[in-house]
Specification:
The chain is an all-beta fold and 253 residues long. It has two domains: 41-147, Beta Barrel (Lipocalin); 150-252. The protein is 2% helix and 57% strand. The chain contains one helix and 18 strands. The strands form three sheets. It has an eight-stranded antiparallel barrel. An eight-stranded antiparallel β-sheet has the order 11-12-13-14-15-16-17-18. The radius of gyration is 22 Å and the shape is globular. The two termini are 16 Å apart. 32% of the residues are buried.
Length: 253
């Protein structure tokens, strides 16, 4: 992906020869079984909100084959996070909807329950609908990004990563062992680690503790991917939450 660019059905059959009588042809019995699709991927696309016809938001989706999803707005940094299951090519899941910082859902909350229902085509599309406990709903249309197929390693991830917005700045350092440390201009301190659940795909797991940060203090967990802004793997997209607060950071080396 450049800049802000950033399961699946199969059938198999067993042919079982029948026991034919003399002079008769063999009968053939076909048994079919649906293979549940793998749901992992990095996805790019848009969401809609039924209460705002014609308005879309650019999103990145990160999903794992084990059933975790994180959908991130590149426009507002709002998030949907949770878990899902796949039956055939139908996915369904539940989780939490995080309003962007400074915004609320229509009922005045910043955190609400969310459910998703989707049709998935493995490593191609992830399209469906979302609804929240605040009685909001909409759709999402995601296309698979082949950056998901890049391998992951600490050699690729290790760097000093920076995020700056106006007077605010944040720096996170990751070493060759996946150890993470960092701080920001608000006095927040970050410590923790990154891990690699599957080295064959471009997805990292982060576990961080935030300290010295007031209401943001806590233990956070989430996912990250490496993206391309100018050169390959020069951008870190990180989505973490504590169960009470969610953070999205798009950081450069």
């Amino acid at each position: 992906m450049k800049g802000r660019n950033l399961v699946f059905a199969g059938l198999f059959a067993f042919l079982i020869p029948g026991c034919g009588g003399s002079g008769g042809g063999d009968a053939v019995t076909v048994a079919q079984a649906i293979v549940d699709a793998n749901g992992g991927g990095i996805w790019v696309g848009q969401t809609t909100d039924d209460s705002q016809p014609g308005v879309t938001q650019d999103f990145v989706g990160v999903t794992t084959d084990s059933g975790e999803f994180r959908f991130l707005s590149l426009d507002t940094f709002g998030q949907f996070t949770g878990t899902f299951t796949v039956s055939g090519n139908a996915a369904s899941g539940t989780g939490l909807g995080w309003a962007p910082i400074g915004f609320t859902w229509t009922d005045g909350s910043v955190l609400t329950s969310v459910s998703i229902a989707a049709t998935v085509t493995e490593r191609q599309q992830f399209n469906g609908s979302w609804s929240t406990g605040s009685n909001e709903s909409g759709t999402f249309t995601f296309a698979y990004s082949d950056i998901h197929q890049r391998t992951s390693s600490f050699a690729k991830l290790s760097a000093n990563w920076f995020y700056t917005s106006g007077p605010y700045s944040n720096t996170i350092s990751i070493d060759q062992n996946g150890d993470v440390s960092g701080s920001d201009t608000n006095g927040c301190i970050y410590v923790g680690d990154a891990s690699i659940p599957d080295a064959s795909v471009n997805t990292y797991v982060f576990d961080l503790t935030v300290m010295g940060c007031g209401l943001l203090n806590g233990m956070y967990a989430g996912l990250a991917v490496l993206d391309d802004e100018t050169v390959q793997d020069d951008t870190l997209i990180l989505s973490i939450d504590s169960g009470q607060v969610a953070i999205v950071l798009v950081m450069a080396r």
